[in-house]
Design goal:
It is built from 5 helices and no strands. By secondary structure, the chain is mainly α. It has one domain.
């Protein structure tokens, strides 16, 4: 069973890397969201989006975790910082 979980994790990481995300960020996101590929993908998408807007990556990560990946709420928090 543990082997299947590990293979599932590797497959999820591979799919996310193929979407253009860096390996380190993929692994970190997967760990932060307890290996939920859907939540990790959402986090990585928003991280890239807010990064493109010029926000600091550390602040983005913190706000996204606090806001549960809710885009509008996170953006509001980032703008207020």
């Amino acid at each position: 069973c543990l082997l299947l979980q590990f293979l599932s994790y590797l497959s999820a990481c591979d799919r996310l890397r193929k979407q253009g995300y860096e390996e380190g960020q993929v692994e970190e996101a997967m760990e932060m969201f307890q290996y939920s590929e859907k939540q990790a993908a959402e986090f990585l998408h928003l991280l890239a989006q807010f990064n493109d807007m010029g926000f600091q990556q550390n602040e983005i990560k913190e706000v996204l975790l606090l806001c549960g990946n809710q885009r509008e709420k996170a953006l509001e928090e980032l703008v207020m910082k």
